[in-house]
Amino acid sequence: YFAVTAYSYNPTKGIVPHALESSPLVQKIRPQSPLSGQRFFSGAGDSLTVTHAGISDGSVIASVTDPSTLTGHQYQVGFDTTGGSTTWKLTDVTASKVLISGQGQAAAGTVPPAVVVDGIAIRTYGPPPGMKDWSVTGTRHITWANANWGAEGFNGAIGNAYDQWFSSSTVTYDKLKNVEIRFAITDTAGIFDANDPNASFGYRYLRAASSPPAQPSFAQYIVNPTGGYAFQDYKKSMPLAAYDIEANPPRRLMVGFLENNKVNGLVDGHYWPPYYGDPVHGDNIASTGPR
């Protein structure tokens, strides 16, 4: 026998009584083997085999909660990114029926709540944050630990730069370091106090520097009109600081950024990326090594 009650406590001074408890709801349980004629092929807590298909490095874990309600069917977890957020659904493949849908994807690195269907507890885990090996993920470059916070230069260019520029080097993805970004205080135009401890000198490069200024205002910032990704200057132009947090103590890193001399580009001499999804793609960031 055991009893279930609801209990609440209020620590506010002067409250009498401080605690409230409901009447016991008594339950009687008889541990026993399955009844005659019943056979269970799984036990409570058993893990079920999950087969992964596709290039995502997320994962699904399924375990038995109630062997008596298992169906013996095959199930499939599928994902949907419509609207910019990731949700998942569960389909009974054997019965060709969607059982649940629109389930929110837990943040990377967290333990998601279980959804129980047909005696099975299902948890979906997002990809762990960090740089991904192209051969494993196909089109994914970086998985972010937090939701997209708007900086276009971070949200795609780092991964693209790694795959396109460094994939043939000895610096493989597993050798990359965890880096912390600390932001300086700015106004809405990205202007900051040069004395802010998180403001940094930055190496500024320019794509298409040898072409005529795509906008008249660009001319004053093109100081080295040569081909390729031409170096322009090294000034306190970045409202952030980057640290290698795997070092003890953390090392502050040199940083640089790339501007783009083209229509809808941005050439203004300091790092200030547009909001993600904006057609302007001007400033991309890179970290070059310890300062």
Structure description:
With 291 residues, the protein is mostly beta strands. A hairpin with a 6-residue loop joins strand 6 and strand 7. The chain has helices spanning 134-137, 152-166, and strands at residues 2-4, 7-9, 19-21, 25-27, 59-64, 75-80, 87-92, 97-104, 115-117, 120-125, 130-131, 142-143, 179-183, 200-207, 229-238, 240-244, 251-260, 284-290. Helix content is 7%, strand content 33%. The strands form six sheets. Strands 13, 14, 15, 16, 17 and 18 form a six-stranded mixed β-sheet that branches. Mean pLDDT is 81; it is low at 146-153, 276-282 and 287-291. The chain contains two helices and 18 strands.
Brief digest:
By secondary structure, the protein is mainly beta.
The strand count comes to: 18
From the alpha-carbon coordinates, what is the Rg to the nearest angstrom? 28 Å
SS-derived structural category: mainly beta
Distance linking N and C termini: 68 Å
The global form is elongated
Main beta sheet = 6 strands, mixed
Topology, element by element:
Elements: E1 2-4, E2 7-9, E3 19-21, E4 25-27, E5 59-64, E6 75-80, E7 87-92, E8 97-104, E9 115-117, E10 120-125, E11 130-131, H1 134-137, E12 142-143, H2 152-166, E13 179-183, E14 200-207, E15 229-238, E16 240-244, E17 251-260, E18 284-290
Parallel strand pairs: 14-17
Antiparallel strand pairs: 1-4, 2-3, 5-10, 6-7, 7-8, 9-10, 11-12, 13-16, 14-15, 16-17, 17-18
Main attributes of the structure:
disordered C terminus; 291 residues; mainly beta; six-stranded mixed beta sheet
